[in-house]
Specification:
It contains four helices and no strands. It is mainly α. The chain has a single domain, classed as Talin, central domain (A middle domain of Talin 1, Up-down Bundle), CATH 1.20.1420. Helix 1 packs antiparallel against helix 2, helix 2 packs antiparallel against helix 3 and helix 3 packs antiparallel against helix 4. The termini are far apart. The N terminus is likely disordered. This is Secreted protein. Keywords: Signal.
């Protein structure tokens, strides 16, 4: 009986690193999936900005979608690097919205760069 308990305890301890590894892998997978979605959102923002004359509200709609996905990613991660990348992307999206609201041509490069940093953090 004592040997069975010892074997069960050993098996539990041996499986612990695997379960922790799977949890980390799942979080990385979720972050990666959301990073891909956010990259798609950024592409939609770019397209909307290029066609703002045809549909002025499209930029606001695309930025709203990006903001919701950033909120979702921010809530799912406890990783400081991901949190910093999300906040950087959010700051760039806010700057883009202010620029669009002011009627000036927005500079999309900082938003694209911030999305690239987020992808790197999630996949690296």
């Amino acid at each position: 009986m004592r040997r069975t308990a010892a074997l069960a305890a050993a098996a539990l301890l041996a499986s612990l690193p695997l379960s922790l590894g799977c949890s980390a892998a799942e979080k990385a997978w979720d972050c990666g999936k959301l990073a891909v979605q956010i990259t798609s959102d950024v592409q939609k923002v770019q397209s909307a900005a290029l066609h703002a004359d045809d549909d002025p509200g499209a930029v606001d709609t695309a930025l709203g979608t990006l903001g919701r996905d950033l909120d979702r990613l921010g809530k799912q991660t406890g990783n400081a690097d991901v949190g910093k990348a999300v906040q950087d992307l959010r700051d760039q999206a806010d700057a883009l919205r202010r620029s669009a609201d002011a009627g000036s041509t927005p500079d999309l490069a900082p938003l694209v760069s911030a999305a690239g940093r987020l992808s790197t953090v999630c996949t690296g």
